[in-house]
């Protein structure tokens, strides 16, 4: 483990993967003290090669001297893993929260990166105040993890429900491989570019630093691009931009698609880098 961090303007990133790693690098570029967690020696070495301070962490077991939990802010970037049959997501998040709540903890804020998949089973326009449909085990698990953070004793606790992630090596034209049909072409998409997720988190920390009131009674922010093109238009353009044959679409099965809006994201006063997702597809420099 590398040198310990002080709690002054420091951020612990738990889960330094596709999103967590560039987030750590961006914060460090801004002069923030960052500790990134790693689950193995190999992953720890790779993080160190990026110039990051690291801490070994294998959830749900957490050592009392874990450096990532001696930071002022904690960002939980671990994926639920539900689609892969994992069932320990709530236990992992709970372990982090319990350690952060200790009397001698340095932690002033916990931010959980959740997903708009928590709205599965709903139709039409949804927002942070929408009642969830718990008929799906996935929704129940994600909600429990969110509530673990939102009901914690931490001074600032925030849940960011992220839309579909895109950017750099995540090119939507490759989401449907082997001529697999794309369902519900007349429903809209709820996507966000990785750069905008990182920008929102950085802006959130600026609000914490200025002790700015977020005027959000839910402490939940839906993070999706303001534009919501139809799936047909979006994927046709995504395939074309990659020089791929036209996509195949299934029949529309949803009576009403789901459109994820936010009634609170404006409170952060964040300006989206990619507000128009269709235009974002044309920017090859951020999709390579």
UniProtKB/TrEMBL annotation:
Name recorded for this polypeptide: 6-phosphogluconate dehydrogenase NADP-binding domain-containing protein
Organism of this sequence: Thalassotalea nanhaiensis
A Pfam family the protein falls into: NAD_binding_2
Domain of life: Bacteria
Residue ranges constituting the 6-phosphogluconate dehydrogenase NADP-binding domain according to the UniProt record: 11-56
Gene3D superfamilies: NAD(P)-binding Rossmann-like Domain
InterPro entries, per database record: 6PGDH_NADP-bd, NAD(P)-bd_dom_sf, NAD(P)-dependent_oxidoreduct
């Amino acid at each position: 483990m590398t040198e310990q961090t002080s709690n002054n303007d420091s951020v612990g990133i738990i889960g330094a993967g596709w999103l967590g790693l560039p987030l750590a690098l961006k914060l460090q570029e801004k002069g923030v003290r960052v500790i990134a967690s790693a689950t193995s020696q190999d992953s720890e070495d790779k993080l160190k090669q990026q110039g990051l301070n690291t801490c070994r962490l294998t959830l749900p077991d957490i050592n009392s001297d874990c450096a990532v939990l001696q930071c002022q802010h904690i960002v939980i970037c671990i994926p639920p893993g539900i689609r892969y049959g994992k069932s320990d997501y709530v236990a992992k998040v709970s372990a982090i929260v319990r350690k952060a709540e200790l009397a001698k903890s340095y932690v002033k804020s916990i931010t959980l990166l959740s997903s708009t998949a928590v709205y599965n089973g709903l139709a039409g326009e949804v927002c942070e105040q929408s009642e969830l449909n718990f008929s799906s085990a996935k929704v129940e698990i994600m909600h429990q993890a969110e509530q673990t953070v939102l009901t914690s004793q931490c001074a600032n606790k925030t849940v960011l429900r992220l839309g579909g992630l895109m950017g750099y090596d995540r090119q939507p034209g490759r989401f449907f491989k082997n001529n697999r049909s794309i369902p519900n072409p007349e429903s809209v998409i709820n996507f966000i570019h990785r750069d905008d997720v990182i920008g929102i988190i950085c802006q959130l920390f600026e609000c914490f630093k200025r002790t700015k009131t977020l005027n959000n009674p839910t402490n939940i922010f839906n993070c999706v691009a303001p534009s919501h093109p139809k799936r047909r238009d979006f994927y046709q353009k995504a395939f074309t931009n990659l020089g791929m044959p036209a996509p195949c679409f299934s029949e529309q099965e949803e009576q009403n698609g789901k459109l994820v809006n936010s009634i609170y994201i404006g409170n952060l006063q964040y300006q989206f880098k990619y507000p128009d997702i269709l235009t974002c597809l044309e920017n090859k420099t951020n999709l390579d």
